[in-house]
């Protein structure tokens, strides 16, 4: 099998110039949209960096490097890349246990996983992840983010060590309720109200940016004229006051034990990245009428997550809110994402010293809004009306994310997705025995159900079974149970009609082989009818055609019954 990279890797950016569809008018639209999105991304990048247990500059570096690479190499015209709230919990956990070196290694590993997924054409698979699982993840992550921000939201002491778990966190908060700084709490509430209410004034400028400006100015005024010093970024990261140099790539030190321990968290990062980016790309497609290339997107995301940590960045993916902001402000192509990265780079080089005045309570309010938007509480409430199994999956994924661990939730979620898929495919597959004396001659399912279709007599000593749906491992036991109930000694030939079988897997092949062996011992011959070319190729691959006999594998019911009549007469 020849591997063709062009089949899986087709970056939209390079296609712009090949097709000659890009002009100065579109560039102007992209330039304006990129400038706006860059400003929108600023407070989020800083907030996500701090909330993840790293520095604000690392959040910005991620938005710059990953934002540039995702737009340059991605498979979507509109996706804006950078740090997102989905990674806060897992990143903070890795940093707490393994340090920054561990996070760099985990992010690079996640990037490699994503590239492999893209090369193996797994992009389409993520479209089939059950919706309750996705909502369970996102709602659980949202609640966890909300919980982690309560320390700064209520102005609790900077040196207060808040535990990692959801329940211990709230235990710690209640124990320190007497230490609430009411000035900082008031600042948080004002900024939160601005975040939610500003959209009614205008949607061109994000409420988070206005809250950031108002909070920073208020913090400076309170400090200079009222002598009230609020906890700021400068309180936590005083080194920012001296300015920041351009980050230089540094290779991490790999060791086997660290890599071994980080496989599961890295896989979690990769899955979250794939889910969030591809969902955002699909939403963007729906809003624009365009179509993204999912495998290219996975490869682009993978490369971005391999390179970004070398500059000190954290995991990144496609950000839905920033993507939609780009579209609403006239973004036409990946150039928007590149411009957004350049804007953030200029801010990083020239304006970061002023970030020391931003109050932590203001950033906490911004993240509370992010958590609210992520929570999808209306969708969560709506899904509770659904099937009991879907509700169970939703609640299990949600509670595991909040109470146990995001990595465990991802692993269990993947297993649940597989189980749900198998169950639903099993519901569409069945084995039945035709009890009448005739059988429809047509191999077309719709024609066969019509009353006036031609009917064929079933010869004496012949039984006809029909398989409806994929003949895979989930159907194997069902077929065995049904076949075991038949103790007839008059049967000489068993015709298995497979016109409705689109494919057969290895377990189905083994099940069929065992069935043939059992019936052979009872003096019964198996004849297959309506075998498609795809199914026949699978049977030949496993040598089943030789065991059954090529003459007993028929493409149509007519020659199958003729063969059965011949065998029955012998």
Description:
The protein has about 575 residues and is mainly α. The chain folds into 2 domains: about 350 residues, no CATH class; about 140 residues, Transcription Regulator spoIIAA (2-Layer Sandwich), CATH 3.30.750.24. It contains 25 helices and 8 strands. The strands form 3 sheets. Strands 3-6-7-8 form a 4-stranded mixed sheet, with helices on both faces. Helix 9 crosses helix 16. It is elongated.
SSE blueprint:
Layout lengths: L4 H4 L3 H8 L4 H28 L4 H18 L7 E2 L5 H32 L11 H18 L1 H4 L12 H10 L6 H16 L9 H19 L7 H4 L19 H33 L5 H14 L9 E2 L1 H9 L6 H16 L9 H16 L1 H7 L4 H17 L1 H23 L1 E4 L4 E3 L4 H4 L6 E3 L4 E7 L4 H12 L8 E8 L5 H16 L3 E5 L3 H9 L2 H5 L8 H13 L1
Parallel strand pairs: 6-7, 7-8
Antiparallel strand pairs: 1-2, 3-6, 4-5
Low-confidence stretches: 446-452
Q: Let me know the largest β-sheet.
A: 4 strands, mixed
| Helix-residue proportion | 55-70%
| Terminal-residue CA separation | 46 Å
**Gross morphology:** elongated
**The number of domains:** 2
The total strand number stands at 8
Mean pLDDT: 86
Count up the helices.
Answer: 25
Strand order of the largest sheet: 3-6-7-8
Overall radius of gyration = 30 Å
Q: Tell me what portion of residues adopts beta-strand conformation.
A: 5-15%
> How does the helix and strand content classify structurally?
mainly alpha
